[in-house]
């Protein structure tokens, strides 16, 4: 029996809503899929800084011929979105609007900080790149933006141009525009020094006095609304400009008897016209007559110009006259000398620090060896031994006891026989019949260093002597500060949980010397890195010590 189902108004609306939600999710999924397949070129190195309330325009950085090669022969579209929010921009009436390759901020606000992504896409390829924008708070009644300064420089030439950068788009796309210039926030008027044209400011007779902070302010109208943008330029003037006049007094003669005035450098005509310019002859009235003059302009003074003869020649019906001058280098100021001195000191200090860091041990060992004769002989510290050696003494001649082999054979062979140190090694140097505790206490106090040699197993539980030596020596080092500790690791140890806290403290504070060789002859040279580190940690030898107890190694 057929069942009739009547769809009510509410149910029809819900069906429509679910259909719209499904379509939206499908579109978002498709958009995310497309975005995920887009090649990301990261963030462009050119970052944009703008003051709050000023206009700004971004140009898509992907319209490069090399990038567009992959889009050749097919149409592509450009879209913009903000990376932080995902908001996509269109050509609407919002303060941020996209017009093909341009993204306009009319004007920028503090909330506009972030990365703006330009996406170049066709049916096959997709590329995107972000541009960073930083909007800083506007400083009221102040024309200089410290966070965005364009660095420009001019040479001391007759003329030079200061450029108002990154305003070309404003000029080309606007309905009308004007540009005003300021120096140190004071308005610049067109005169015989400055002339404003296009996006440039012509500076005539460039000199060191023109150094300073310049600001260009462009006001433009777009879609009937006026906007403004400013650029701050830090101008530096380089080179040395020089000019001089050759003046000839002709009195009050009704007609000049002069036929010619000209300049000569080193008795020859100007050999470098790009640097030397002679002006036209001019005449001006003075008291008692007239002066005729010709200006010599040196646009860039070089070292070869010093002590050169610059001659002014005057030829007339009455004869030939010559006047000349020479340029001398100005003396460097006291501040220049101070700056050079401290620069040399700084460079020397940095180089010395680097050398010392990498060659510290070699330098100290060389000093100990080379300066032995010039050092004053110090009073005796009452110590008998250079180091007391601690090692595991259970089965000292067993092949598995690496610490004992190293302490009884390798260490004395190098430090005593080859380097002249004197060591106390329990099991070799104590006298028969002495109490163990007395031997340990007495000889640790007579030693300048405590050398602790260990492998992966710190000490044997059946060898309490090692534990007693450690506690005695490390107590003396930590509390009394009379002996310094040298840790020698014979194996790579990753777990120190079984070590006493005092050993872990010294390991963390000063580290350990790691033995990486084998018990063979080539590893027993005092000049190897391991033995240099040990010798560096050992005390300085005042004079060659002889030790009758040196152990002869037989290999």
Structure description:
This protein is an alpha+beta fold and 555 residues long. The protein folds into four domains: 37-136, Immunoglobulin-like (Sandwich), CATH 2.60.40.10; 149-238, Immunoglobulin-like, CATH 2.60.40.10; 242-325, Immunoglobulins (Immunoglobulin-like, Sandwich); 387-537, Toll/interleukin-1 receptor homology (TIR) domain (Rossmann fold, 3-Layer(aba) Sandwich). It has helices spanning 9-36, 65-68, 168-173, 334-370, 402-418, 436-445, 464-480, 501-510, 529-537; strands spanning 39-43, 48-51, 56-59, 77-82, 88-89, 96-99, 102-105, 114-121, 126-136, 149-155, 159-163, 176-183, 186-187, 194-197, 200-204, 212-222, 225-238, 242-251, 258-265, 276-278, 282-286, 289-298, 310-316, 319-325, 387-390, 423-425, 449-454, 484-489, 513-514. The strands form seven sheets. Strands 1, 2, 4, 5, 8 and 9 form a six-stranded mixed β-sheet that branches. Helix 4 crosses helix 9 (529-537) and helix 6 runs parallel beside helix 7 (464-480). The protein is flat, with a radius of gyration of 43 Å. The termini are far apart. Belongs to the interleukin-1 receptor family. Residues 50-134, 162-234 form the Ig-like domain. It comes from Erpetoichthys calabaricus (Rope fish).
Helix content: 10-25%
Per DSSP E runs of 2 or more residues, the count of β-strands stands at 29
Q: So what's the CATH class of the largest domain?
A: Alpha Beta
Total discrete domains: 4
CATH topology of the largest domain: Rossmann fold
Task: Characterize the main sheet.
Answer: 6 strands, mixed
Q: What's the architecture of the largest domain, going by CATH?
A: 3-Layer(aba) Sandwich
